[in-house]
Amino acid sequence: MALSTETLRLAQLIWDYHHVNHTVQPADCIMVLGSHDLRVAERGAELWLQGYAPWLLLAGGLGRLTLGLWQETEADKFASVARQMGVPAEHILIENRSTNTGENVALAYQLLQARQIQVNRFILVQKPYMERRTLATFEKQWPGKQTEILVTSPQISFADYPNPEVSPEEVIAIMLGDLQRIKVYPEKGYQTYQPIPAEVWSAYEQLIAQGFTNHLIAE
User: Fold this and answer.
1) Fewest Cβ atoms nearer than 10 Å: which of 78, 158, 160, 201?
2) CATH class as words, domain 5-209
3) Do 40 and 154 touch, CB atoms closer than 8 A?
4) Helix (H, G, I), strand (E, B) or coil at 65
5) What is each CA distance from 33 to 6, 44, 122, 133, 176, in whole angstroms?
6) pLDDT tens digits, 174-201
7) DSSP H helical ranges for 50-195
8) Residue 72's pLDDT band (boundaries 50, 70, 90)?
9) Start and end of every DUF218 domain (predicted)?
10) Percent of all residues in the chain with a pLDDT value above 70, rounded to a whole number
């Protein structure tokens, strides 16, 4: 269906809020978090090829959006993308058991510890509308509390993000689900607190009223 100008305006507010607008700097490791979006893997590989870090860590088993959709794990599909783009296999680390962001944190940490790779600065690569939630999760759960966290995503606009695999309506619903989690997860101890501007929360409530509710959790 065609979305109204007002719906798109409200969705843009949510999209912009989810971006943390970090400037990418040289780091010890680039970590691509699992998802259904291969453009995330492409962004991580681009950064490795540009020399931002010696390691490219690809994380993700099969999560709520890929279970039943893909036969191969997210990390393994991402690794294929990275190799095709020219990242040597010996510089790729694969964590392919995690099913959510919290497990991304724990299992990636175990992998790096096992390989004796010290990370003082991370570049985390995630979908555009999951930048802020990724930052909040790592700030809370990453065991290396002195590790600097930088978050980036595919450099793409809200208007251009939907594709045959994810519709504009689905993008809006997922964004609202992530915003809800940003609000409620700090109380559960999963993430750090992130202030939500009143206009962003108002946009959330208006879009919920329009029916974009299929990625919400029971509070």
Assistant:
1) 160
2) alpha beta
3) yes
4) coil
5) 32, 10, 12, 12, 19
6) 999 999 999 999 999 999 999 999 999 9
7) 74-85, 101-114, 131-141, 168-188
8) confident
9) 28-146
10) 95
